[in-house]
What does this fold into?
Amino acid sequence: MQIRKSRFMLGLRQWARAIPFLLTGFILMALFVLYPLIRNVWISFTDFNVIQNKANAFVGGQNYLAKAICLHAGIRSSIRLLRFRGKWHLA
It folds into this structure.
C-alpha cells in the first residue's frame, strides 16, 4: 500500500512541475488563436468597415445570405461555361 501512495505522490509532484508550462501554453493559445477566432466570428455578423471608424451595426445572417446568393449565381454561370454545344467539356 505504501508503494502505491508514494507513486501517487510522485505523479502529483510531476504534474505540479508541469502545470506552469501547460498554463503558459494555454494562455498563449487563447491569446493568439481563440481570441482572433471569436472576434472574426463576431465581426462576420456585423456591418464592419475597416476604413470608417464608426459603430458596427449587428446585421445577423444578412452577410451570409448575400454571399449565398452570389455563390449560387457563380455556380450557375460556371455550369453554363462548362457546357459547349450541348456537350460537357471538362478541360
Observations:
- The two ends are 74 Å apart (CA to CA).
